[in-house]
Amino acid sequence: MSKRFKKYMEIAYVVGIFLVALYLRLWWINNVPTFPIFDFKTYQEIATNIFWGAGHTLNGEPVAFQGMGYPVALGTLYKIVGKPDEIIAKRFNVWLSMLTLICTYFILIKLTKRKFVIYTAYTIVALLPNYIAYTNVIGTEVFITFLFSVIILLQAYSFDNRVRYPLLGLFVGGAALTKPFFMAYPVIAASTLWLREKDLKRVIILFLSVMILMTGVIAPWTYRNYKKFGRFIPVSYNSGYVFYLNNNPYNANGAWMPIKDVYASETFRKKINEILQDGRRSEKVAHELEVIFKPKAKEWIKENPMEFLRLGFIRLKSTFFSGTWDIDAWAQNDQRPVEEKYKVWNKDQKITYLRHKNFVRAMRDILIYVLSSFGFIYITLNVVNIILGFFKKEVKLKNEIIIPTLNSAFFIAVYFVYEGQPRYNFPVLFLFAISTALCLDMIRKGVKAE
Question: Who contacts 445 (Cβ-Cβ below 8 Å, separation ≥6)?
């Protein structure tokens, strides 16, 4: 087989998988019924308010409970198109998902020359059930994953730093406006450069460039929050809220719990009720809760470090090793068409349907368990190299070690502290796919050598 023919075959495979991935995403949003609930409903409501000219509001009040990046982008898109239709949001997700796949491919060919790794990881990302199903969800998952993939792409490639560093800062700023914990990402970007090149001057320039541009992107929203709420709120005011709900004496599963169920003394409960006006005011507009919740969470963690650690590991299990029930809950939750058919089916038809449904769920769960396992294994294999790389100037690491390990660990650390549930694994699944392909390649080569 000639090199030219082999190259054509590789291009045909990449394009073919891309088209299959596009078809599956479009088919899903057009054929699988769902409706937005909880946070997803809030995103749609805020985007619709932006479309109608009511600004970033909820129930007639200014709000900054969630990052503004996604609802503002969606509301702006609605204005451009001319209507706040949910199918527009879903088509937007499809194109963002396809752009993420393109970014993943270019990240892969920069990280490694090994064809097995490139095409294995690329295929997983293209056909991953989560990445297909969540195009049906009006939420931040697809949006933040696209921004994150661009951020990694900008670190993997080398071109004029006068352009690359500001671009990186702008995208990190956009990510921070969507997920506020990205405000810490300049440290990850600087660490990546240090581990790869050990050039302190360039590291400092990169860090300052990204930090300044990120701050510039966030600053107008921070100023808006100061005007609306009378205090310094960089992006959102739910960090203290989430922090305490997930770290209090009555939390046993490391996940969100209703405010009415959290631990609170009589005096503290009275403060909560005053802020919420005895249930008449939505928690999402009650920015004052952050002020009283965050100190309580810190106090409890300081007094109960072992309990906090237990909750942290429970959160990691909930995020990475709880299967894919979230797809059923958020991406295909409208069961009315099935229920209508179910009424007239005989027992054999019902059993066949349930068996098929459980089989599909089982295959999805197994895939996520495999990806998460290899993701954590890859981090474990490289953690010593990362630590040595920080402190030994002569130790320079490759991007294929640094990027999957450091970025996955960044998300894991955030989820360990705050909250865990399966949909939070979404932004790192393409990194886990890369880690899986790298691990499988090592196993494949080891077996071959043996």
Answer: none
Helices 86-111 and 429-449, packing angle to 10 deg: 30
Structure-token pair, residue 196: 């790869």
- The dihedrals phi and psi of 258, each to the nearest 5 degrees, come to -60, 145
Query: Which two tokens mark 158?
Result: 């080398």
DSSP H helical ranges for 233-346: 239-246, 266-275, 288-303, 305-320, 325-326, 336-344
Q: What is the pLDDT of residues 123-174, one digit of tens each?
A: 999 999 999 999 999 999 999 999 999 999 999 998 999 999 999 999 999 9
Which residue spans within 372-432 are E strands per DSSP? none
Give the position of tokens 């932004």.
Answer: 427
Residue 336 has pLDDT above 90, yes or no: no
Q: Identify the three-state secondary structure at position 1.
A: coil
d(CA 304, CA 130): 36
Instruction: Report the 10 Å Cβ neighbour count for 133.
Output: 24
- Chain center to CA of 53: 29
Does an H or E element contain 193, and which?
helix 185-197
- Is residue 449 over pLDDT 80? no
pLDDT in tens, 301-318: 999 999 999 999 999 999
Chain centroid to CA 214: 19
